[in-house]
Amino acid sequence: MFEGGGPDAKVVDRWRGSLGGVARDLSDVARIDLIRSLEELKAAAAAAQARLAADLDESVRARHREQELPPSQQGAGVASQVALARRDSPVKGGQHLGLAKALVGEMPHTLAALSEGRLSEWRATLLVRETACLSGEHRSRVDAELVADPARLDGLGDRRVAAEARRLAYRLDPAAAVARARKAEGDRAVTVRPAPDTMTYLTGLLPVRAGIAAYAALGRAADEARAVGDPRSRGQVMADTLVARVTGQAVATGAPVAVGLVMTDRALFAGDSEPAVVPGYGPVPAPVARDWLRPARTPTTDSAGEPAPRSAEVDVEVWLRRLFTHPTTGQLVAMESKAVTFPPALRQLLVLRDEVCRTPWCDALVRHADHVVPRARGGSTDEANGQGLCEQCNYVKESPGWSAGPAPGSSLGRHLVETVAPT
After folding, report:
1. What b/e string do you get for 243-256 counting C-beta neighbours within 10 Å, with b at 16 or more?
2. What b/e readout covers 61-88, taking b as 16+ CB neighbours within 10 angstroms?
3. What is the average pLDDT score of the chain?
4. 340-356 residue pLDDT tens
5. Residue 308: what are its φ and ψ, rounded to 5°?
6. Cα(134)–Cα(132) distance, rounded to whole angstroms?
7. Residues 6+ apart with CB under 8 A from 400
8. Rounded to 10 degrees, what is the CA torsion of 324, 337, 406, 76?
């Protein structure tokens, strides 16, 4: 039992198990009441997780201070432990921990509302996010003014909850809000993530003026094309125009496109249905991968904007970098080096083999080629002792109390790593 008589993990496990036997022969009113109660239970559980995470952070920091670690290293690895416990990525673990520390340390009314089931975890997150630029004192004032009265946020959706918190934050400290906006411009970036059916989401995080201007320009191009009879939808024209303007593929001098592709020789030559893999994206159907091997041609338009005949199409070079997996185990061919760091070819092998960070529940792309057993402890620089990690997980692995090594069950075609966290 926890101090104060609260439930321990075994008691919570029994509660969770009992939910699997929820009665089915209920009235509709009873079903709605139970759905509401379970939603409130989820919120209360999130509040309990927040308190536990904040306590864990305080405990680890105290231990690191006793070990005389530099202040910048105190608390290292806590977010990753929270992530592992919640079966989330390290990035999400950091968000969970940041939410917990803000709620416990500066926003007691929001934490109480979460505990009582009056506020969902996501809406509590919105309140924390929209007040992140404020001092602790100002954040506590927003917390009291907005959440102390249970009726204040009752009935408000996510957008209005965030807007109310933002309005109060801007009123209390407009200078901090302006500084935050300017800092946010430094976070501008372009990311790509998989979408269903061999599609991708290409996302640009831009200052509002730049984003609106880019969107308006694509919209104008689509309207002009549709006005002269282009059969594509407005969204299709905007998407195609974006690709054309970024890559130059719509002109004869378009840049070649290199796509990493991993597939078996059977899928490539014998029509096997084993999916191929595009590093950074994931699996794609074998027929789609084989289509990529055929000469690619991009249709052009004539001076009036009409589609040109096929004879006027422009060739677009598409180079495919092909690696072949083992015909029975699926393991990529191993390479070995005596170098202290992974040479480029071996590093690329690890990136292609692992695809994403090897830390459980972390979907980040591989950034670092890591020695499972460090070189300082005799680890070799080869495929068997290599793993792909994201930058954050590689640094966390070096924190006090963390260790890694080959896991039982590793064999040809099955590369396993056992990572041990401090807890």
Report:
1. eeeeeebbeeebee
2. beebeeeebeeeebbbbbbbbbbbbeeb
3. 82
4. 578 887 888 888 888 88
5. -80, 155
6. 6
7. 64, 67, 69, 76, 77, 422
8. -110
